[in-house]
Amino acid sequence: MAAPRRRPVWAFPAVIVAVLAVVAALIVGITGLLANPVRGVNADGTSTLAGTFEPYRCDRSSCDGYLQAGARSVFVRFPRGCPAPARGSQVTLMARPAPDLGKGSYRATACA
């Protein structure tokens, strides 16, 4: 009767690395789903927004765009005359809710 085959030496470390990779992917995925661009609401009614900026419509006089954090985003309208933040840049700003622009919309109180 033949002796049973032995597992390769590298098999156990490979399983450990695979398990750690799956755990890391779960943590990153869940964090991304739970991220929120609205960091907090202040006593004066403004909100602190932070995230990656994606322009929607920007010209010389005004700029509108989205702040995205994880899977969530909010629409932001900057005051007239503000320069547009670079696409993909990290932006933190103060803004007031603007329900007239739609749900999840804000008007920035100053340039980014």
Top keywords for this entry?
alpha+beta, five-stranded mixed beta barrel, 21% helix, 112 residues
Helical percentage:
10-25%
Strand order of the largest sheet: 2-3-4-6-5
Computed structural class: alpha+beta
Q: Can you name the CATH architecture of the domain at 38-108? A: Beta Barrel
CATH class of the domain at 38-108: Mainly Beta
Q: Spans with pLDDT under 50 lasting ≥5 residues? A: none
CATH topology of the domain at 38-108: OB fold (Dihydrolipoamide Acetyltransferase, E2P)
Structural Rg: 23 Å
Layout of helices and strands:
Blueprint: H1 11-34, E1 38-41, E2 47-58, E3 63-69, E4 72-77, E5 90-97, E6 105-108
Parallel strand pairs: 4-6
Antiparallel strand pairs: 1-2, 2-3, 2-5, 3-4, 5-6
In short:
With 112 residues, this protein is of the alpha+beta class. It is built from 1 helix and 6 strands, in the order H-E-E-E-E-E-E.
